[in-house]
């Protein structure tokens, strides 16, 4: 390495597969030092902060924009996720459930098109992030009971406003043409899902916005938010508009963590699979896959022929975000066993990487894009594990809201102006209540899974789960 000041290997590359694909990583961008003025200050250099900066600059090139990142670009979930780019929003029904069908269809069209739009922007801007639109399978792949779960989910998607063309049922034979699960009973094919390498995207996006004139300061943790001013230990940015883009990494900054808490999610990556193994697994279109379990699991075939697979989040007492990336052997083994249970052809395959991070869960269980004109404070997040595509849509929306553009996006039900996050998002309950509730939900879901595994239905547990779902409304 010739210029060790500029480039250094990233420690995260030892456990995070995506980080390992970045051959050279710029060493820290300069810290914020002293007091500066800007038009927009953005806190957090993940997808939300960077997409917001990108669209602001594209729409209004004269704006002076400063991004403050506590660690490195992509330190949060954006550099660590499973790489699914989903044409849906987690919690969409909470925004549009009561609207007339025509409007619901329109909103579903916006979130579905967002996937194609991401592909177009990456191509136009020359960001090579292994974007591949292969669709996704939501399969009944292990137990017969999963057929009904997935059928219900498909019905829900159509009721919501997703088209038959975008989401349709595959019978066992059609499913087997796409992937060879242990017991592929059938499943949903969702056409509007792509996959990508998130570390390449976040790194490429940061370089792109810098080329457009945005300043990014790393190791510059915002410690205080005053009226139109954000301070770090070594300086401050004075700006009429401040964007908080910290999602599941808000920590002690301002009061965002009272409304959006971090939930951990852990991921593994296999070694590159041989051609023979891929023959046995299928997935030639490099699609994404998941099976029906409330203990969510999701995977996809990477550009270099591995499987990246994530499953089962958890919540840490005190809502601490996961700063480090490493995860333990037991956590890796559990995910490996689940993956092999889904795809038995992977028996004996080596797991090369295992890592984790935090995603943001809003107390309203739906994502938001908010710009409070009165205070000049904007924020977006609460994507609940579906933020790769959503952060693009919401960053773009924030740019429209901040620039007061009367666009279709600015009129979507998840876009809010003239109110603060405090008015729009409920506060999470105090500890240990939310930790105890999270434990109870996790154990009852695990119990449900174990009963399904033994071919038994779980009416009592369903009632327990429904009860918890109702008290957290
Ligand atoms: C393991 C895992 C798997 C996932 N898989 C998927 C998936 O497959 N598909 C999908 O759609 N979504 C997935 N997600 C969710 C998705 O990654 C996130 O929703 C999305 O990346 C959020 O982007 P963001 O920019 O809002 O937040 P982040 O990427 O979390 O960025 C927030 C940034 O703010 C910085 N920050 C925090 N506090 C401060 C401060 N005080 N000052 C300055 N900076 C600060 C942090 O360091 C961080 O870099 C996953 C998440 C995880 C953790």
TrEMBL record:
The keyword Oxidoreductase applies. The keyword Oxidoreductase applies. Its EC number is 1.-.-.-. This is NAD(P)/FAD-dependent oxidoreductase. It comes from Chromohalobacter sarecensis. The lineage of its organism: Bacteria, Pseudomonadati, Pseudomonadota, Gammaproteobacteria, Oceanospirillales. Signal peptide: none annotated. InterPro entries: FAD-dep_OxRdtase, FAD/NAD-bd_sf. Keywords: Oxidoreductase. It is an enzyme of class 1 (oxidoreductase). Residues 39-401 form the FAD dependent oxidoreductase domain. GO terms for molecular function: oxidoreductase activity.
